[in-house]
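Tip: read the tokens left to right.
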């Protein structure tokens, strides 16, 4: 139990520090923003093709996702309301998906052995946003509201 709690706290600290560092946003006009037009049906299809094998058909994640495997890498977390995806703003979710976990955090000066690959070579920005939009659309309204506030805060810090 203590190992699991420590691992969860460590990941939360690493991701939280990444948000504060805002490293990859310094060269941009600001953090990436979700476009006004999102195709949820395309996002659902793209999620099934690119994400479901690790994060689950029903966004449930892998078993024991809070505990590192023998290689020290955490299993894929759920993207439903039981996971921590909604604890982060859109820009972090987008960059983590586009660049991959390790590269996204490395740009912020954080060394973290993430199993999340980058999809920026395989998917367009719009396709990534469609996936993010689909994932967000599955969350209960209250979770969406909390995540929206985090996105607004992230955008303000990035200006």
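Filled-in amino acids:
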């Amino acid at each position: 139990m203590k190992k699991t709690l420590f691992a969860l706290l460590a990941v939360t600290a690493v991701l939280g520090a990444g948000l504060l560092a805002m490293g990859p946003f310094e060269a941009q006009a600001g953090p990436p923003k979700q476009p006004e037009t999102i195709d949820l049906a395309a996002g659902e299809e793209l999620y099934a093709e690119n994400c479901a094998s690790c994060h689950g058909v029903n966004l449930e994640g892998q078993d024991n996702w809070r505990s590192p495997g023998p290689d020290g890498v955490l299993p894929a977390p759920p993207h439903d309301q039981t996971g921590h995806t909604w604890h982060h703003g859109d820009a972090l979710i987008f960059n983590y998906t586009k660049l991959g976990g390790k590269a996204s955090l490395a740009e912020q000066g954080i060394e973290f052995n993430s199993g999340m690959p980058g999809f920026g070579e395989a998917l367009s920005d719009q396709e990534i946003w469609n996936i993010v939009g689909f994932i967000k659309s599955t969350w209960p309204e209250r979770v969406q509201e909390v995540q929206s506030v985090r996105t607004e805060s992230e955008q303000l810090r990035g200006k």
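Residues 2-157 form a domain with the Cytochrome Bc1 Complex; Chain D, domain 2 fold (CATH 1.10.760.10). Residues 4-28 have pLDDT under 50 and may be disordered.
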